[in-house]
Each structure stands twice: as C-alpha cells, then as structure tokens.
Amino acid sequence: MVFPDFGGVGAADDLRSIVGALLMFVLIIAVLMLIVSAIIWAIASSTGNAHTTTKARIGAWVALGAAALAGAGVAWVNFLLGLGERL
Questions:
Q1: Are the C-beta atoms of residues 66 and 37 closer than 8 Å to each other?
Q2: Cα 10 from Cα 2, distance rounded (Å)
Q3: CA distance 66 to 56
C-alpha cells in the first residue's frame, strides 16, 4: 500500500523564510519599477511622446501586477504549508 509522507513538511519554517525572503525582493523590485515607470510615464506624456508614454504605462501596470501577485504568493504558500501540516 502507498501512504502519504506526513513528515514531508518537516522543514516548513525554513521554506516559509526562504519564500518570504525571495518574495520580499520581488516586491522591492516591483515597487521600484513602478516608481520608475510612473516617472517616465509622467515625463513622456508631458513632452508629447506617445510611444514612450504607452510603454511606460504598460510597465507601470506590469509592475503593479507583479507586486500584487508576489503579495498573494506569500498568502498562498502559507495556506499550502498550513494545509500540509494538518494532513
């Protein structure tokens, strides 16, 4: 018979700290890219450069989406680790 390995989540605290540290770097980079894209968006729109304005706007939305996904990733990993400990 095959049974699940209930001790397989033994290093859950280490995994939480590693994932948390990696997602912290993602959040920092995403916020910095959001700031840079917003500044470029403002400068390009004030000078009338439509192409750069569009690219900067897309960059700002992508950075915002990455920050949201990284924040949700922390909650998702914590949920899965909590679920794994209850099995």
A1: no
A2: 20
A3: 15
* Count of beta carbons in the 10 Å neighbourhood of residue 70: 19
Please write the tens of the pLDDT for every residue from 49-80.
999 999 999 999 999 999 888 888 777 877 88
- CB–CB of 25/66 below 8 Å? no
d(CA 79, CA 82): 5
CA 58-65-70 angle, 5° bins: 145
Radius of gyration, alpha carbons of the chain? 20
Distance CA 35, CA 56 (A): 10
Q: Is 63 exposed, middle or buried (0-12, 13-18, 19+ CB in 10 A)?
A: buried
The identity of residue 38, as a single letter, is A
